[in-house]
Design goal:
Elements (H helix, E strand, L loop, with lengths): L5 E10 L15 E4 L7 H7 L7 E6 L13 E5 L14 E6 L2 E11 L2 E5 L9 E12 L2 H6 L2
Antiparallel strand pairs: 1-2, 1-8, 3-8, 4-7, 5-6, 6-7
Length: about 150
């Protein structure tokens, strides 16, 4: 049964509330993670606690337990002259930038004339996730896996 310190193999398909697929495990290549190491969204990890191989679940994980709410303070407007040199400001382009307290990955949301609208929220923030999950395997982690955290 799934518990902290176990290696878990799953397949999953997350969707938004409208049923649009957000991501998926690669067909034929299940996702393997160390339970309790924070390698999957907290709400999914919590919902899988205690499940055994062969378990299939359809889950709704609220925004607060996935990538969180969208934060307005990481959305901003830049003058084109403030945009990082060497990075063309194209809609959808992602880039890293230093901010107070660390580094954030931003995405260009829109370019309008000499203005660039950017967003530092995770692309899946602000969305509840609906997961179809199947637990394929569960085993105790080796000392090396626990030591590496994966």
């Amino acid at each position: 049964m799934i518990q902290n310190g176990h290696v878990v193999t799953i397949t999953y398909v997350p969707k938004d509330a409208a049923g649009v697929q957000l991501d998926t495990s690669v067909p034929g290549e299940p996702f393997v993670y160390l339970h309790g190491a924070g390698q999957i969204v907290p709400g999914l990890e919590s919902a899988l606690e205690g499940a055994a191989p062969g378990t299939r679940k359809t889950l709704v994980v609220p925004t607060k337990d996935t990538y969180g709410e969208e934060l307005p303070d990481v959305k901003t407007l830049l003058a084109l002259t403030e945009f990082p040199p060497g990075i063309p400001p194209e809609t959808g382009r992602r880039f890293r930038a230093q901010v107070e307290g660390g580094e954030i990955i931003f995405a260009v949301e829109k370019v309008a004339g000499d203005r660039v609208f950017i967003n530092g929220n995770h692309p899946l923030a602000g969305k509840d996730h609906h997961f179809d999950v199947e637990v394929l395997d569960v085993r105790p982690a080796t000392a090396g896996e626990v030591g590496h955290g994966h």
